[in-house]
C-alpha cells in the first residue's frame, strides 16, 4: 500500500488530494476496506474516513472519497490551518483479521490566505469608486453647463421681449379709471436694469362735487318778414315842385 504525493503545501480555502494505491498479488475477490488516518504532532492517529471495495464514492462535509480500484482518492475540502498534519491510508482485508497493511505518511501544510490576494481586492474595490467619482464629476459639469445655457437663453429672451415692448427704451403702462377711460403713460427705464415688465391698474376716485349741467344754447331759428311799401301817388306839378325844393 503506497500513498502519494508525499507532501502538499496549500493555502486556506483550497482542497488537498491524496491517492492510495493497493496491490494484491492474488485478488480472489475477498472483501476489504480502505481507511484514512490523520496524525498531528506525534499524537495517536485518528481515523477520519472509510470506503469499502463495493462503494464507488462517498462524501462527508469535510472529505470526499472515490474508488478507482486499485487506486483510492481522498479530497480534503475547504482547508484550514488545523488540517495540517500527517495522512496515511490502511488496507484491512476481511476473513483475515491479522492482515492489515498501512502506507507511509504524507505531510500536509496549510498556510494562511495569501496577503497578496487580500491587498489586491481592496485595490480593485478602490479602483471602482474612482471610476464612479469621475463619472459623477463629469455629470455635474454637464449639468452645470446646461444650467448656464438655460440662464443665458432665459435672459436673452427676456431682454429681447422687453426691447420689443417699448421701442424708445421705455415701458408702457396701461391705466384704467372707473369711467372706462384708458390712459397711456410711458416711463423711462430705471438705472438698474430689470428683466420683467409689470402691468398695473390705477383706480381713480370719483369727484364728489356736484356736476355742472351743460350750457344750453338757444335753438337757431329763421324768421321771415314781409315789407309793404305804400302805393305811390301820381306826380303833380305842385308835388314836383316841392320835390325839387
From TrEMBL:
GO terms for cellular component: external side of plasma membrane. Pfam families: V-set. The chain crosses the membrane at residues 135-155. GO terms for biological process: negative regulation of immune response; positive regulation of T cell apoptotic process. PANTHER family: PROGRAMMED CELL DEATH PROTEIN 1. Residues 1-89 form the Ig-like domain. The keyword Membrane applies. InterPro entries: Ig-like_dom, Ig-like_dom_sf, Ig-like_fold, Ig_sub, Ig_V-set, PDCD1. Keywords: Membrane, Transmembrane, Transmembrane helix. This is PDCD1 protein. The keyword Membrane applies.
Amino acid at each position: 500500500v503506497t500513498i502519494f504525493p508525499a507532501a502538499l503545501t496549500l493555502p486556506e480555502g483550497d482542497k488537498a488530494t491524496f491517492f492510495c494505491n493497493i496491490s494484491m498479488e492474488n485478488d480472489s475477490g475477498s472483501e476489504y476496506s480502505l481507511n484514512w488516518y490523520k496524525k498531528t504532532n506525534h499524537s495517536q492517529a485518528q481515523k477520519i474516513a472509510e470506503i469499502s471495495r463495493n462503494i464507488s464514492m462517498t462524501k462527508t462535509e469535510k472529505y470526499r472519497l472515490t474508488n478507482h480500484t486499485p487506486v483510492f482518492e481522498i479530497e480534503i475540502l475547504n482547508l484550514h490551518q488545523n488540517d495540517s498534519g500527517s495522512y496515511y491510508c490502511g488496507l484491512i482485508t476481511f476473513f483475515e483479521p491479522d492482515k492489515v497493511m498501512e502506507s507511509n505518511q504524507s505531510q500536509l501544510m496549510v498556510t494562511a490566505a495569501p496577503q497578496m490576494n487580500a491587498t489586491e481586492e481592496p485595490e480593485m474595490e478602490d479602483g471602482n469608486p474612482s471610476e464612479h467619482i469621475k463619472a459623477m464629476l463629469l455629470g455635474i459639469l454637464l449639468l452645470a453647463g446646461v444650467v448656464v445655457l438655460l440662464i443665458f437663453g432665459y435672459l436673452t429672451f427676456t431682454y429681447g421681449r422687453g426691447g420689443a415692448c417699448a421701442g424708445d427704451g421705455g415701458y408702457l403702462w396701461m391705466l384704467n379709471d372707473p369711467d372706462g377711460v384708458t390712459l397711456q403713460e410711458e416711463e423711462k427705464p430705471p438705472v438698474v436694469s430689470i428683466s420683467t415688465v409689470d402691468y398695473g391698474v390705477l383706480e381713480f376716485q370719483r369727484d364728489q362735487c356736484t356736476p355742472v349741467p351743460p350750457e344750453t344754447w338757444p335753438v337757431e331759428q329763421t324768421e321771415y318778414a314781409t315789407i309793404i311799401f305804400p302805393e305811390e301817388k301820381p306826380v303833380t306839378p305842385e308835388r314836383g315842385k316841392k320835390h325839387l325844393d
